[in-house]
Write a structure and sequence with these properties.
Blueprint (H helix, E strand, L loop, with lengths): L2 H14 L6 H13 L15 H5 L10 H17 L6 H20 L26 H17 L2 H35 L6 E6 L6 E7 L3 E9 L3 E4 L3 E3 L3 H4 L8 H12 L4 E3 L6 E4 L13 E4 L11 E4 L5 H11 L3
Antiparallel strand pairs: 1-2, 2-3, 3-4, 3-5, 6-7, 7-8, 8-9
Length: 333
């Protein structure tokens, strides 16, 4: 989730449990601790472009790390501000822990994947309930947080927490409706999906990207879920087959290992790019939900040495045509 949402939700939970005289401190500690797990984005390597994929939403986002992460936040925040705000260290730790505890669970509500149970498992949990940026989710929390501080009333923060639970629940209902429509669409095509997932599109829970896997291909469609269901049929693409798609690749070299790392990150949803024969794309994400115009990929090189890494590449499909296609789906009343 975006940093603003993480911060205001962390502050809301801390405020909801604070005493009136501690509202400022609780809100500030919860705000900072709510954003703190994303400091893992600083774990990068110039020589290994995929390193950040392994560590983002890993140990700092584990539920088992909450006591440790919040303790570290409390150490810093209490030393800088706690005494001035007349907090004991335990109070600083409590407000930090409440803020920190919201982060990973909120991230797991998105589609990116969060290692909630690391180190017991490296599985990335993605519940596909909300977009990583969704104003309809964030703005009510932000407004209630502001009025909590202005009115000095913790009950407003508790309402914000209730909204933070309600909106993903609505997203779950919408996701299940989109998945049901996806299964029906696959049946009409006489396909038997190996797996099928519906993912929220940017900033809304109305239009969903439904992707399903058959024996040889991935199929993607956009489905708008409101009072009625509307389907926007999309594309299909062949699943990645390294022997067919990259016959020159040494699977024991570093590029071969990087493909497996990228496969784990993408939950196996990989294909050879239709527009660039050296790219392997993560087919789960695109600006237009019924297309395979991927947001990121890795680029291989037939000239790479045994120890050379694959290149990580981001693609920003922000063309007027793509924005219009998506807008037409979102506002198709």
């Amino acid at each position: 989730m975006d940093p603003l949402t993480q911060g205001v939700l962390g502050a809301s939970l801390s405020l909801s449990a604070s005493k009136k005289q501690h509202l400022l401190a609780a809100g500030f500690f919860g705000l900072v601790a709510g954003m703190a797990p994303d400091l893992d984005v600083l774990i990068r390597s110039e020589s290994d472009p995929l390193l950040f994929l392994e560590f983002h939403r890993q140990f700092t986002h584990s539920l088992f790390f909450i006591p440790v992460g919040s303790f570290l936040c409390a150490l810093v925040l209490h030393r800088l501000f706690g005494k001035k705000l007349r907090l004991s260290f335990l109070q600083s730790w409590l407000y930090s822990a409440l803020g920190y505890s919201t982060h990973a669970l909120l991230d797991a509500c998105t589609s990116y994947g969060t290692q909630l149970l690391w180190p017991l498992t490296n599985e990335r949990y993605a519940w596909n309930l909300v977009s990583v940026i969704d104003p309809a989710f964030t703005l009510p929390i932000l407004i209630l947080l502001v009025f909590t501080m202005l009115k000095r009333n913790a009950w407003l923060a508790r309402i914000a927490v209730v909204w933070a639970l309600t909106y993903p629940t609505l997203g779950m209902i919408q996701r299940d409706r989109a998945e049901a429509a996806g299964w029906q669409l696959a049946k009409e095509r006489q396909h038997t999906p190996i797996r099928l997932e519906a993912k929220p599109t940017f900033a809304n829970i109305l239009v969903w990207k439904v992707i399903y896997e058959t024996e040889d291909n991935y199929h993607v469609d956009a489905i708008r879920v409101s009072g009625s269901i509307k389907t926007y049929p999309g594309e299909s693409i062949a699943k990645l087959n390294l022997n067919r798609d990259f016959p020159w690749l040494d699977l024991n070299a570093q590029q071969g290992k990087d493909i497996e790392r990228f496969r784990q990150f993408s939950n196996g949803f990989l294909a050879k790019s239709p527009s660039d024969e050296l790219h392997i794309i993560d087919v789960r994400y695109s600006m237009v939900p019924n297309q395979f115009n991927a947001l990121w990929s890795i680029k291989l090189s037939p000239l790479a040495s045994t120890n050379d890494h694959a290149e990580y590449v981001t693609h920003r499909d922000n063309s007027p045509e793509s924005r219009q296609l998506f807008s037409d789906m979102l506002f198709d009343f």
